[in-house]
Structures are given as structure tokens and as C-alpha cells.
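Next comes this protein.

***
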Amino acid sequence: MKENSTSPEGQERWAIQEYTSITPKTNFKMYNAFADKDENPELPGSDWEYNFSEQNGITKVSIIIKNESLARLEKMIKMGFKEGFTMAIDNLENYWQLFRNISRNKIYNYNDNRDAEN
């Protein structure tokens, strides 16, 4: 999968992602690397692992990122990893909040319609 993003300064960034393992509902792993627009990796990539679990009715997401070297990590940070990752997590939280609100609204509308029919 090829992904494109644009920094707040207008600079385009590309990344390639290769999913290496998927366990539905609990886990997926992928290899991620910065790339040019033609999918040529710019640096060695990193291994990502996403784990999902439920605690008291709330989904917990745990993300582990392994880099082959400190130099790779430092380069990622220099290229805006922290800001981009924070923005992605914030977008995910906003999505889930919207999803929860839509789901609640559908439940209320469904119940309201059932009450009107009775």
C-alpha cells in the first residue's frame, strides 16, 4: 500500500506499507518505510505491531514500533514523525467519537420509530 501525506508546510511525504500478518479483531503487523512517489524506499523501514483488546467495554489499542537503529529513529523524528503520528491518533479519536455519536443517534431513532409504531 502506498500512502501520501502533506505537512502543514505543504511538503509531500510518501510511505509504503506491507502488511505482514493480520489476525482479525486482535492484531496486525506491517513493515513501513518512507518512499518517493514511485515507491522507492528512502530509508530502511520499521516494523509496526498493532494490538487490540477490550477492557471494561473500551477498546484499547497498543502500537509497538521497532526500528533497526537509533539513526533511523532520529531521522523519523526529524522528518516530523511525532507531529504526524499525533495528528493521526487525534484523527482516529475524532473518527471514533463521530462513529459513537452516529451509532447512538441510529439507536435512538430506531427506538423512537418503534415507540411510534406501538
